[in-house]
């Protein structure tokens, strides 16, 4: 070997050769290191089988995404955009079927119903299998929703890299995963604080990353009407504007506000775009039109819909207000029908939320029209339910019938079962009604025992806007969600099966802006995502918190204003 240096071949002395050798040497020295991610994500996959001796899947500029069938085109484009954001690499997508030979390395997306074999319908819908090797990552979903869930897992498993200085890779593994609950939701109130469509779409991005699949959009309340209704144009012309916002949560009167006008509403095209955007991300949008209470914005727009005829103003204070829709007037039923018809035209969701909560009967007790309707219907005080409470049940049943005529079902807060209590003292019909149990954990269980399908959203644990819980240290606030009581205490198997899922809520009385919204949402949404995906059994808080550290790095990389102390 020494003699080779003493007597090199003539070509090796050529200047061009020496330059090329120098370039190759520098390229080899500057080769960016490979950084491998982890499958320790939130929510935690059901089954992860690592292949520690196998080479990882390395993402690079030559990587491609291939998808089988037209139904996965959108999923492929979304994944390509997410990968580009996370790594800085520009990936290409192609409409090539998985069955064809493709150039490695590649990410393959496909649908195979067999992935969800032996799972219930709600679990099967979100099921996926992910297989990572040095040659490819294959994500196969039982449905398109399952493929999207697998894509979210892939994106969260990627290492955070210094773009351009590191090369991302994924460990070789086989993953089988599916959700415990079919309803994994979040509610945003845009009445008290109006968030524009761009902010709503960012919220949908956040939900998608956490494998949530329901966005409950609270569009109307006393403090503002945000959805246009062609048949009732004053709802947004007048009802979307208020004179100010109260300084306190529940002032004694309407004078204690800041005097700064608040306004805002969506166009129908904006709503359609949000619905489409959410669907692309595997999320169903459920609109809420809160009735017959919480209707001051509607009454200010159309005073004839109230018991007294007004005058009314869009509320500048919070709390439970006495003026509600008049249940005794035929015009009220006409109003409800035309509003709901236009709402159903905009939202294809199976469920439409109709509120039904916090409806005082003060006006109805004195209203000639309401009392005449009570006599006409033969309603009486019985079984702990007043005749006015029964009038509300009758009105809610009429609204549910309007939905049922178009194949939809009503969701309502648990108040509709019996005002401000956990009792069951009347209709609505369990077949066409889903109960959102907000008062306390027992609200959902009692509804399930009475034959209702129900969603678990107790205010003491899952109202992320609650001031007393936001005042807690972040760790304590997070653990309050993770450690909340079991949904299923005291339920039979049949009753437990009626619980559709879980939902967090943000009421916007005290939400200042988008940053504040994200601060209240994150990282507690991760705890909800974990529990609703993996189920309420076998919690391991230490393991969850370790995985949360990794997810919070993803928040940081996406410039979300997550809460940290």
Task: Please provide a written account of the structure.
The chain is an alpha/beta fold and 565 residues long. It folds into two domains: 35-177, Chitobiase/beta-hexosaminidase domain 2-like (Chitobiase, domain 2, 2-Layer Sandwich); 183-528, TIM Barrel, CATH 3.20.20. Helices cover 36% and strands 17% of the residues. Strands 11-12-17-18-19-20-21-22 form an eight-stranded parallel beta barrel, surrounded by six helices. Strands 2-10-7-8-6-4-5 form a seven-stranded mixed beta sheet, covered by helices on one side. The radius of gyration is 28 Å and the shape is elongated. It starts with a helix and ends in an 8-residue tail after the last helix. The relative contact order is 0.10.
Q: Concise description?
A:
The chain is of the alpha/beta class and 565 residues long. It has 21 helices and 22 strands. It has an 8-stranded parallel beta barrel, surrounded by 6 helices. Strands 2-10-7-8-6-4-5 form a 7-stranded mixed sheet, covered by helices on one side.
What is the fold's blueprint, element by element?
Blueprint: H1 2-6, H2 15-29, E1 34-36, E2 47-50, E3 57-58, E4 64-67, H3 73-87, E5 92-94, E6 106-111, H4 121-125, E7 128-132, E8 136-141, H5 144-157, E9 167-170, E10 173-177, E11 183-189, H6 197-209, E12 214-218, E13 220-221, E14 224-225, H7 234-237, E15 241-242, E16 262-263, H8 268-280, E17 284-291, H9 296-301, H10 330-346, E18 351-355, H11 362-366, H12 368-377, H13 387-404, E19 409-413, E20 433-437, H14 441-449, E21 453-456, H15 459-462, H16 467-470, H17 474-482, H18 493-496, E22 499-506, H19 514-521, H20 524-534, H21 541-557
Helix pairs in contact: 3-5, 6-8, 10-13, 17-20
